[in-house]
């Protein structure tokens, strides 16, 4: 339907500084986004304003400067580091005589390039269609003409109305297919909940090192690169934790400041892995000067997707780029881990992360010494199946004496399945 620019084109970048913090964007981040999209930046126009102009977003003088830059550099596209309204895009395109793309359109293009799975492609298409629907009027030169030709003359819907109807039909179709995918994901989550397998979800600003850490912990071979949005499709892998047993680790899409709402809405099924997690590993690139801002942006998106209340463990990544930093665990006054300092790239400090995960997920452990008579073979078998026996011996009267350590939930479940009160077998509590 639309002539979208191809990756590899020449672009003029536009970055405007605003005094208002909520409107401010990062120029370095724009350059990284452009690089991630495979676009070659041939010019940069910067400026400052107190507020956007209604016609061009920038002032008319600055708009002329952008048009001149396009002419001089022979650029194919102008990329703004800001969200533009449909009318602003149209006015700028008329002036510059080339394609104009805003920050949302650029992020959508990167997502379109990165999507690999069926679900990921559907989600990207949904976000693109929602974004395009507001800009539909400039997609055609014949939009307001009524259909003509034999059998189609006279009153009827305009081409624009037809296109809008087709667009709505396609969006409805994608939403139905995504609902089916969401049901499948929910079934998987219910099965994990029944088995009481905890889920740990990696979250963080884009390019913080989540996929590198994921690969280091699971040897999954997930694509990881020094670019924004290298990961788009969620990946789940099982890991083993001492005293906890199996846990599911989920790698998710990176967040970014002013993440387009179309994307948040489209990726709801994917982000549900984050909402339903027992623990979030918030990966932070501590070598980035703006790491504090990035932490705030991630927490903001987590609040938007109703995951702000999920317990977090901060992973201070890339310590190999910081002078004099060594791997360590920071704990609160109750001894609970709150930060782990490591380098995912170098694989340094990952054993501390496993230790911290065990502490966070396996804090409700119980330790008992039990004395089990020979006629309680069923209980003995159940303990073997739980792999919770740390020491065993036989008493003189033939009773079996065992030291057990297990999660409290396993102990309570065991209590329901034995013939007599489980505490009657306890001779010592550690």
TrEMBL record:
Q: Which InterPro entries match?
A: EFG_III/V (IPR035647), G_HFLX_dom (IPR030394), GTP-bd (IPR006073), GTP-bd_M (IPR032305), GTPase_HflX (IPR016496), GTPase_HflX_N (IPR025121), GTPase_HflX_N_sf (IPR042108), P-loop_NTPase (IPR027417)
Q: Which parts of the sequence bind GTP?
A: 204-211, 229-233, 251-254, 317-320, 343-345
Summarize where Mg(2+) binds, as residue positions: 211, 231
GO MF terms held by the record: GTP binding; GTPase activity; guanosine tetraphosphate binding; metal ion binding; ribosome binding
Spell out the GO cellular component terms annotated for this protein, sorted alphabetically and separated by semicolons.
cytoplasm
**Assembly state and interactors?**
Monomer. Associates with the 50S ribosomal subunit.
Q: Which UniProt keywords apply?
A: Cytoplasm, GTP-binding, Magnesium, Metal-binding, Nucleotide-binding
> Which family does the record claim for this protein?
Belongs to the TRAFAC class OBG-HflX-like GTPase superfamily. HflX GTPase family.
Swiss-Prot/TrEMBL cofactor(s): Mg(2+)
The UniProt entry lists the main location of this chain as cytoplasm
Q: Which domain of life is it from?
A: Bacteria
This chain belongs to the protein called: GTPase HflX
Lineage start = Bacteria, Pseudomonadati, Pseudomonadota, Gammaproteobacteria, Alteromonadales
